[in-house]
What we know:
Blueprint: H1 3-29, H2 35-70, H3 72-108, H4 112-139, H5 141-147, H6 152-165, H7 168-184, H8 189-212, H9 216-239, H10 263-285, H11 287-295, H12 299-315, H13 317-335, H14 339-366, H15 368-375, H16 379-386
Helix pairs in contact: 2-3, 2-8, 2-9, 2-12, 2-13, 3-4, 3-6, 3-7, 3-10, 3-11, 3-12, 3-13, 4-7, 5-6, 6-9, 7-9, 8-9, 11-12, 12-16, 13-14, 15-16
Transmembrane segments: 63-85, 123-148, 154-171, 192-211, 217-237, 285-305, 311-331, 352-372
Organism: Halorubrum tibetense
Pfam families: MatE
Amino acid sequence: MRSRPRRWAARLHVALVALGAAVAEVLDRAGVIDRERLDETLELAWPRIVTGFAIMSKNTVDLAIIGIALGANAVAGLAFAFAYWQLAKFLSIGLAGGTVSLVSQNYGGDRPDRAARVVKQSLLVSVLLVIPIVVGFVWFAEPLIALVGGEGDALRFGVVYLVVTAPALAFEFFNMIASRTYAGVGDTFTPMVVRAGGALLNVVLTAVFVLGAGLGVLGAGIGTAVSIAAVAVVLAWGMTGRSYFGRGASPVPVGRDGPWFDADLARDLLRVSTPLMARRVAEGVVVFPLLWVAASFGSVTVAALEVGRRVRALLGSFSWGFSIAASTLVGKRLGAGEESLATAYGRDVIRLSAVVYVLASVAVVIAAEPIARVFVDDPTAVAATTA
């Protein structure tokens, strides 16, 4: 009896391998990406894509469970809070983008000690950035939510969620730096496992606190904050050079030995990261006028807008994987002095990401209504979300 499931599993594996080979052949012949470079790209990208889904699913899970439990007003409140949370997260993503570039270049150039010092500079900069953000979000939560149109129940829900989750941004900044550091040394599997575990913990805690204990938005915020902190604790273990059952120790560990501040590296980091942070923050700022306009039409419209943004954020996980693959592979080739090969890798990854996004967008358009019903059940809200 046990051999039958094994046979089916073996057949499924063979079928998936054959399908993957066929897709790779099609992409190669179509001139999208060289088959060998596809293998290297996917090896780095798929764990990061899963990680991206895990990270973005935190807000998405909160939104879905709160929508089921409390309705459109609560979803609108979370939408207002998410806008500020995402703005801070985008800042951390920009800083982490500079981190992975410098780590991969130095590690690929056989300078692991210098790569470790890059990580230290990133952590120092992240502390300087996140402390005033957390304080501002906690102390000025109500006027911030009201600024984008929050009022009544939506204002109350948004303030509660922002106050509870704002302190977790300190852990999230560290998590972003740690994840990108691992990616910079060619290990996207370790942060994927840790992040996926954190996402699962968030689902469990949010469901227990919201649906079980009846804590509502407060419970969703607590679940998110605790799960993010748990991820930081686990990643900190590996970032200090310790392994997870024999694997996953960072080859560029952060320790107390050696100087923490390096002026030259700090300048290099800021030079690379500042444009990335500015671009990311600009992306985050765009949502504020949209929320303000949507709020003038009521909570249902705000909820519909936020569901659309959450779905789009999940699709953005593909860019997490492809950007990490491109940064790592291109950075390593540049570190080795192979500029023409670095250009080829960058070009092929861009083409592959374009194909993936076109296919994913078509799938979302086709399944728009079922996706909307995951978050809202009121017919008016479903119609607005689908549109």
